[in-house]
Amino acid sequence: KFSSEDKIRIVLEGLRGEYSIAELCRREGIAESLYYNWSKDFLAAGKRRLSGDTARQATSGEVTSLKREARDLKEALANIDLSASTASLPIKFAKTKVNDAANLIASGKFYEANLALITLEDSVVIDAVSVDAAPASDKD
């Protein structure tokens, strides 16, 4: 019945102390015990976040996206032709990061998996020549 935004709004209003909890609960149409459960959950989540715990429930879209990204990176690693590539990527490091990310996804640590993939992405060095930098023809 109540969205997470509604719960947060109600808990914060209770924490402000402008009204008694009983009055707030009457006005919102909830039992005081429900308010105290929300308040306990809210404060516990804040404590976990402040202590550095970044684990959270990922949405199904986030899970799908991270799984797709890990699969794409595994396929990309399998198809790298080092003799023709101008990209420099430490293969052992890349395999380790992709496997780390896959393991983190499997254990529900999506934020950490994303960080592992970003670390991998940041390690790619591309040596390229811009086509626009080619000398102009003397025929003009």
What does this structure look like?
The protein has 140 residues and is mainly alpha-helical. It has six helices and two strands. It has a two-stranded antiparallel ribbon with strand order 1-2. α1 (4-16) crosses α3. The longest helix is centred in the N-terminal third of the chain and has 19 residues, at 32-50. The model is unreliable at 128-136 (pLDDT under 50).
Write the layout of secondary structure elements.
Layout lengths: L3 H13 L4 H8 L3 H19 L9 H19 L8 E2 L2 H16 L3 H13 L2 E2 L14
Antiparallel strand pairs: 1-2
Helix pairs in contact: 1-3, 4-5, 4-6, 5-6
In short:
Helix content is 63%, strand content 3%.
Q: Could you give a short account of the major beta sheet?
A: 2 strands, antiparallel
Query: Could you say which structural class the secondary elements and strand pairing correspond to?
Result: mainly alpha
H/E series = HHHHEHHE
Low-confidence stretches: 128-136
Strand order, main sheet: write it out. 1-2
Q: Any idea what the radius of gyration is?
A: 26 Å
The coarse silhouette is elongated
- Count the beta strands: 2
